[in-house]
């Protein structure tokens, strides 16, 4: 672990526990900071708080009292999921100009290994996993961290100079950095999302673009040449910018006559890639560009692309039952993600959609109605999906739960159809997260098969 005096003798408030909060607090104490932990859950229902108190930390539970700030903190390290402007303590900290970081910055400050940083509205987990597997295939000693895998600051403490941290980064995490600088950054796409967290779309975009803000000319920024927001945001970086494109020949990664190229080198033909759909090809191009820039061998990249079937809950093929193929795309928590999934199919889709109602505009699904045989809708948004379907003469069945939705889809489907769970909504009305929702769907498909 790289030593830093950045936090020595600083008074630091860690807000929010769980894995990232505990890791941040322990690391800060090792870096000789004076740490106080604050978590909104009461002590009686908070085993994490009890654990940290047993280790000698001062822990304040049961809310975020404003008077905590009177202790004169030099810095706040915040759990990424806690909104900046919905917690009065954080709003007051912003007024007082107290720096607010996330543990990703701590990871960077102590890591001996360089970082590869990946961000996007959609596709970052698939792409992060692809890059990791490509580098692993070529024995380039990657570690995976961030939004997937282990907490970044834990991984970073164990990383050596010969390794590299392949890190998926969210806008929540990137709002809390000051000097974080990846050796290679990747901007896949930036569309509208998380407006219940961010003040507005511009704040969300700027948070994403923080990934490239500290890069220097000897570092690389791989970017989507077809995303106007990203292209316009390149003025924020001094990095060497390398494009990728699905539609044009560029000085980076691109498609030509059914083949994937990097610069002038043919990497692989599209037919040999197991991942299907333009959105996955976008992920592939980004991953190829990053891996080649890091020095990955082309044969290693090809081997991975010939076997990689996707990431769980992200257009994941589950199984075939009575000639009907079932796909789990529970990660689609917004309309754009569901649009992307629908693009991957030609027709004969039975769409399972619904969930937490965040008042997203559902009309973005209309251009894909010609591919859809019927919609089965559940959760809080079911009546909004039904209203949209009725207005455009689309068959639609309304149910309460995913269990019922899978049963109804099995009745509707005939051989050759695709049942696609792609909810276009968050899961929190009925599930703690999209992973639990997706796992439940997989179980329900297994039950269908075993009948």
From TrEMBL:
UniProt protein name: UDP-N-acetylmuramoylalanine--D-glutamate ligase
Reactions catalysed, as given in the entry: UDP-N-acetyl-alpha-D-muramoyl-L-alanine + D-glutamate + ATP = UDP-N-acetyl-alpha-D-muramoyl-L-alanyl-D-glutamate + ADP + phosphate + H(+)
Gene3D superfamilies linked to this entry: Mur ligase, C-terminal domain, Mur-like, catalytic domain, NAD(P)-binding Rossmann-like Domain
Stretches assigned to the Mur ligase C-terminal domain: 313-425
MF terms (GO), sorted A to Z: UDP-N-acetylmuramoylalanine-D-glutamate ligase activity
Coiled coil: none
Boundaries of every Mur ligase central domain copy: 118-290
Pfam families attached to this UniProt entry: Mur_ligase_C, Mur_ligase_M, MurD-like_N
Primary localisation category: cytoplasm
Enzyme Commission number(s): 6.3.2.9
Task of the protein: Cell wall formation. Catalyzes the addition of glutamate to the nucleotide precursor UDP-N-acetylmuramoyl-L-alanine (UMA).
Organism from which the protein derives: Turicibacter bilis
Keywords: ATP-binding, Cell cycle, Cell division, Cell shape, Cell wall biogenesis/degradation, Cytoplasm, Ligase, Nucleotide-binding, Peptidoglycan synthesis
PANTHER family tied to this protein: UDP-N-ACETYLMURAMOYLALANINE--D-GLUTAMATE LIGASE
Family: Belongs to the MurCDEF family.
Gene name per UniProt: murD
Keyword Cell division: yes
Pathway assignment: Cell wall biogenesis; peptidoglycan biosynthesis
Localisation: Cytoplasm
Broad EC category: ligase
């Amino acid at each position: 672990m790289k030593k830093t005096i950045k936090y020595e003798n600083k008074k630091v408030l860690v807000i929010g526990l769980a894995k990232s909060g505990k890791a941040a607090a322990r690391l800060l104490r090792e870096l000789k900071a004076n740490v106080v932990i604050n978590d909104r859950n009461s002590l009686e229902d908070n085993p994490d708080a009890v654990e940290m108190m047993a280790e000698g930390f001062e822990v304040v539970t049961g809310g975020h009292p404003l008077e905590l700030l009177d202790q004169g903190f030099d810095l706040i390290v915040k759990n990424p999921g806690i909104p900046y402007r919905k917690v009065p303590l954080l709003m007051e900290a912003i007024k007082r100009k107290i720096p607010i970081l996330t543990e990703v910055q701590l990871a960077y400050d102590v890591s001996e290994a360089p970082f590869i940083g990946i961000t996007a509205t959609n596709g970052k987990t698939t792409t992060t996993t692809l890059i990791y597997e490509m580098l692993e295939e070529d024995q380039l000693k990657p570690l995976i961290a961030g939004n997937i895998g282990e907490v970044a600051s834990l991984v970073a403490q164990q990383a050596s100079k010969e390794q590299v941290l392949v890190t998926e980064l969210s806008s929540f995490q990137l709002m809390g950095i000051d000097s974080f600088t990846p050796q290679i950054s990747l901007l896949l796409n930036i569309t509208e999302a998380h407006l219940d967290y961010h003040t507005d779309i511009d704040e969300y975009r700027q948070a994403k673009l923080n990934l490239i803000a500290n890069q220097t000319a000897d570092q690389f920024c791989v970017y989507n040449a077809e995303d106007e927001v990203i292209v316009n945001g390149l003025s924020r970086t001094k990095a060497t910018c390398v494009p990728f494109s699905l539609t044009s020949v560029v000085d980076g990664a691109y498609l030509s006559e059914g083949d994937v190229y990097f610069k002038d080198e043919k990497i692989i033909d599209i037919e040999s890639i197991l991942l299907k759909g333009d959105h996955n090809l976008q992920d592939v191009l980004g991953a190829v560009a990053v891996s080649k820039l890091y020095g990955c061998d082309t044969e290693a990249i090809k081997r991975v692309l010939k076997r990689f079937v996707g990431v769980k809950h992200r257009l994941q093929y589950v199984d075939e039952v009575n000639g009907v193929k079932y796909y789990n795309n529970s990660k689609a928590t917004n309309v754009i993600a569901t649009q992307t999934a629908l693009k991957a199919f030609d027709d004969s889709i039975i769409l399972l959609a619904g969930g937490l109602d965040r008042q997203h505009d559902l009309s973005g699904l209309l251009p894909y109605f010609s591919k859809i045989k019927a919609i089965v809708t559940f959760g809080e948004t079911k009546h909004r999906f039904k209203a949209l379907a009725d207005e455009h003469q689309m068959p639609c069945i309304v149910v309460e739960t995913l269990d019922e939705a899978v049963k109804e889809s099995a009745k509707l489907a005939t051989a050759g159809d695709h049942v696609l769970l792609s909810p276009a909504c968050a899961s929190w009305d009925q599930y703690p997260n999209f992973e639990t929702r997706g796992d439940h769907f997989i179980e329900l498909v297994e039950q269908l098969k075993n009948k």
